[in-house]
Amino acid sequence: MDFSFIPIILSLKVAFAAVIIVTCISIPLAGLMAKREFLGKDVVESIITLPLVLPPSVIGFMLLFVFGKNGPLGKLLEQWFHTRIVFTLAGAVVAAAVVALPLMYQSVKVAMENVDPNLEKAARTLGAKELRIFITITLPLAWNGIVAGLVLAFARSLGEFGATLMIAGNIPGKTQTMPLAIYFANESGDTGQASILVIIMTVFSFMVIYGLNRWGKKSQHDSRGGGDNA
Amino acid sequence: MLKAHFKKKLPTFDLEANISLNSGILALVGPSGAGKTTILQCIAGLQTPSQGEIKIREKAVYSSEQGINVPIRNRRIGYVFQDYALFPHMTVEKNVMYGIPKKDNISNKVLTVSKVLEMLKIEHLRHRYPNQISGGEKQRVALARALMTEPELLLLDEPLSALDQETRGTLQQELLKLQAQWQIPFILVTHDPQEAEILGDQIIKLDRGRQESIRGGSLKIG
């Protein structure tokens, strides 16, 4: 039996890239949604959360529509940058980012909403501008939620299957990530390869959940936040 | 120094404030829900009045007529919150330094962090975090932090209500001393008439948005 490590490496690449994208989007987005009121906020909120409940095939279909040869973004990328998203690893990254975004976003938003508004008001009376307040008060105090969101987003990216298959395809050595490799190894009767990958994914996912729970309990226990605003 | 007359619509009643303060301590006293904190927050800019005018040193920071509403950060008002609102992730020193005006190196003010910490007797707490110090100490840190911004007016929302009797007495005396030293007017909110008696050069009693002046003049004890 010859075991291939390539799907693991591809999965890690995809997950890291997706998490970076998701972090860059979800932190400012969560800040905006947690601290500001504007028209149509509920609609925006629903759109961000949608990938959490939509079947992956629907997301895959939508991504193909947007990034496909004749899709609005697909055309643009082809003409201006001569790059393609469909059937490339970049497609897998986009798919992973879309499904991981709501997880990170929710986690960060809840953490930011829990920051005592009096602290932000106090910073305002001390002459701080809104951006400084966000960076020096809101972000550090929402740190637990950011880390939890990062880990969840990473785990979700690693496990993305349906949408990835539709937009990135199943090209061994190029776009075949772990979940895809498991599915197709099993289909072709290569249970050896499949079961090793299954064990790796399961152990990893268990460690993520276990670690988060332990850490959540610990930081609840010795949280510095509760002390002076009880 | 401070001239404020404004109205603010609240869910259950209309609040009306008419305040004129040149120096010393103005005590706003009344039961909870009387609108004391709302008055402070309107002056600071944390809430917007429905109509009226607020002037600090003859300059309007809020005027419904002229459409002026200066942002909080430009009002030069120090605010001490009821629960102190110290930043839990910063040391005492970092807390106190948070509001130091940036242009400070140009101005010739000699207000250093050490001096203020010393004045408030909290120098030994410099590197502690807010959850490692007592309520009275938190109060001093909050005062130091507000004073470091070199405000022209200091607002204190129930500054002593969370403290035990003994600490309270000490801090009352220190507030009086601090005000004399600093030479800026203080507005202090309290629900305790006795505390208002001790601290207030001027006392305004509030009840459901209506105010009644008890002590108006310049008489000062101690």
Word description of this protein:
The complex is a heterodimer of chains A (230) and B (222). Chain A has 230 residues and is mainly α. Chain A has one domain (6-177): MetI-like (MetI-like fold), CATH 1.10.3720.10. Chain A is built from 11 helices and no strands. Chain A has helices at residues 6-35, 41-53, 56-67, 72-81, 89-113, 117-125, 130-141, 143-159, 162-168, 178-187, 191-221. In chain A, helix 6 runs antiparallel to helix 7 (130-141) and helix 10 packs antiparallel against helix 11. The radius of gyration of chain A is 20 Å and the shape is globular. Mean pLDDT of chain A is 91; it is low at 224-230. Chain B is α/β, with parallel strands linked by helices. Chain B has a domain at 87-151. In chain B, 27% of the residues lie in helices and 27% in strands. Chain B has 6 helices and 11 strands. Chain B has helices at residues 36-44, 92-97, 113-119, 135-147, 165-182, 193-199, and strands spanning 2-9, 14-21, 25-29, 51-56, 59-63, 68-69, 77-80, 153-157, 186-190, 202-207, 210-215. In chain B, strands 7-8-9-3-10-11 form a 6-stranded mixed β-sheet, sandwiched between helices. Chain B is globular and about 45 Å long. At the A-B interface, helix 6 and helix 7 of A face strand 7 and helix 4 of B.
